[in-house]
Recover the amino acids of this structure.
């Protein structure tokens, strides 16, 4: 009883396999995938070059080099529950360094006061400049 079912299945396999190997339709109509993907960064007033059957062209501009539009990008801090474990460990390590007064931590305890405070001041200044530049670029 099992043998006729097995024979019928084996006889149907070539037909199923032949149906799966049919060429897929693509937008170029040639049946072959593009051979090359090219990323182009455009300056002011430049146009994106046309794609061809053998090449896909992805264009970005200098003012917006990302593929996600600016209004959809989240530039705020990432909540702790959404961060990777590596970032969480790095944060805990930095907190521990400051609490222990290790070098480059700007702690009043231990040897880290001088170099760490200058480094922290420079980072704070750079963050303020970056925030000011971002605020100026978003104002129409």
């Amino acid at each position: 009883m099992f043998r006729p079912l097995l024979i019928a299945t084996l006889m149907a396999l070539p037909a199923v396999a032949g149906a799966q190997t049919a060429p897929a339709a693509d937008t170029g109509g040639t049946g072959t995938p593009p051979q090359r993907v090219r990323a182009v960064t455009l300056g002011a007033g430049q146009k994106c070059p046309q794609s061809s059957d053998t090449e896909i062209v992805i264009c970005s501009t200098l003012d917006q080099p990302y593929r996600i539009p600016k209004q959809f990008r989240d530039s705020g801090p990432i909540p702790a529950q959404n961060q990777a474990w590596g970032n969480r460990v790095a944060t805990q390590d930095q907190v521990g360094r400051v609490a222990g007064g290790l070098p480059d931590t700007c702690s009043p305890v231990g040897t880290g006061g001088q170099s760490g405070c200058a480094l922290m001041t420079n980072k704070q200044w750079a963050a303020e400049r970056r925030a000011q530049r971002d605020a100026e670029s978003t104002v129409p």
Observations:
- Helices lie at 2-20, 85-100, 113-138.
- Residues 19-27 have pLDDT under 50 and may be disordered.
- The longest strand covers residues 36-42.
